[in-house]
Design brief:
Blueprint (H helix, E strand, L loop, with lengths): L1 E4 L2 E3 L12 E4 L3 H6 L6 E5 L5 H4 L8 E5 L7 H11 L5 E5 L7 H7 L3 E4 L1 H6 L2 H8 L16 H11 L1
Parallel strand pairs: 3-4, 4-5, 5-6, 6-7
Antiparallel strand pairs: 1-2, 1-7
């Protein structure tokens, strides 16, 4: 799997096999992973239809939530990311699955910090393609996570300043 953020590919500091101190556990094994973490960061793999109420009590203990995208045509993960941010999750959000570069800007606008691509997807879509796609949308109509303001807010501020 390749890990991509707004700057391009980067090294993954989490593992699912215990190779690093920061681990990602399946949702079914989350509590034992938290109990055994010894203070190290813990993340969780969730389906794109996971109930936020199940995760909310653990927000302070989770460093990362990895949301599965079973196919690039299944957009429920975008909605879940937005709801997690609105519910107050401050940790890292990771989209996991065969997303395409055109979906990158939307993923980051919904609250994702990174995208984990399967090797087959990464082989078809170069880092240059991802970077180009991530740079295509500079302003949006809707406010997004980690974005200062929308186009509408910029226009209002310009009118009030004139």
């Amino acid at each position: 799997m390749k890990l991509l953020d707004r700057s391009g590919y980067r090294r993954d500091d989490f593992s699912r096999d215990g190779a690093t101190n920061a681990t990602i556990a399946p949702l079914a094994d989350l509590q034992p992973a938290l109990d055994a973490s010894g203070g190290h960061p813990v993340g969780v793999d969730v389906a794109n239809n996971t109930d936020i109420d199940r995760l909310a009590p653990l927000f302070d203990r989770l460093a990362l939530i990895a949301i599965a995208f079973p196919a690039c045509s299944d957009g429920r993960g975008f909605s879940l990311a937005k709801r997690l941010r609105q519910a107050g999750f401050k940790g890292r959000l990771r989209a996991v699955g065969p997303l395409i570069p055109d979906q990158g800007p939307y993923a980051f606008a919904c609250g994702f910090d990174e995208i984990e691509l399967p090797e087959a997807s990464a082989a078809r879509q170069t880092e240059a393609q991802w970077k180009k796609a991530l740079g295509t949308i500079s302003f949006t109509y809707q406010p997004g996570y980690a974005r200062a303001e929308s186009i509408l807010q910029r226009r209002l501020a310009a009118r009030q300043g004139a």
